[in-house]
Amino acid sequence: MQQLEINYENKFSFDHLNSTQFEEFCFELLECLGFRNVNWRKGTGHASSPSDQGRDIECERVLEDVVDGELIIEKWFVECKHYKTGVPPEKIQGVLSWATSKRPDRVLIIASNFLSNQCKNSLDDYVRENRPPFKIKYWEKKDLEKVTQGHSLLLKKI
């Protein structure tokens, strides 16, 4: 597969997408990365949907134990945040509440730009104070730029 070079004159950006289009990009990215049973929880045709119940996407990641080959299936809740500025901490509370209740293996927050410092501090405090049974990860624009290299069909959509 041909490697796609990023033209820095046309900066890597999601600013021209609306929130629904960004969620669709995240859905397709997860599929390209090998996640399975990817389920977009949109629920309605509206730009924002309260029926996603605290997560935008549910999916599974299959890992193979290197010793005995056992397949381990991780359940992931994914929250997509499309902001031109930093994501504020109050915007991730829904996914944390839902994950606390339903206990996935991982919570992934995908930000079209970045999480605010207050949001990152809030996540650190949440982990320290609550010791959740799930791991929390976040991907910001710089991470998305890196992980999409080599996925030229996906990049054409943004």
Q: Can you tell me about this structure?
A:
A five-stranded mixed β-sheet has the order 1-2-3-5-7. Strands 4-6 form a two-stranded parallel sheet. Mean pLDDT is 86; it is low at 1-9. With 158 residues, it is of the alpha/beta class. The protein starts with 18 loop residues before the first helix and ends with a helix. It has helices spanning 19-32, 93-102, 117-130, 141-147, 152-156, and strands at 36-40, 57-64, 71-81, 86-87, 106-111, 114-115, 135-139.
Summary keywords:
158 residues; alpha/beta; five-stranded mixed beta sheet; 5 helices; 25% strand
Mean pLDDT: 86
| Widest sheet, order of strands | 1-2-3-5-7
Q: How many strand segments?
A: 7
This entry's quaternary arrangement is single chain
Low-confidence segments = 1-9
Secondary structural class: alpha/beta
The biggest sheet, with number of strands, parallel, antiparallel or mixed sense and barrel status, is:
5 strands, mixed
How far is the N terminus from the C terminus? 19 Å
Q: What is Rg?
A: 16 Å
**Helix count, per DSSP?**
5
Walk me through the topology:
Layout: H1 19-32, E1 36-40, E2 57-64, E3 71-81, E4 86-87, H2 93-102, E5 106-111, E6 114-115, H3 117-130, E7 135-139, H4 141-147, H5 152-156
Parallel strand pairs: 3-5, 4-6, 5-7
Antiparallel strand pairs: 1-2, 2-3
Brief account:
This protein has 158 residues and is α/β, with parallel strands linked by helices. 32% of the residues lie in helices and 25% in strands.
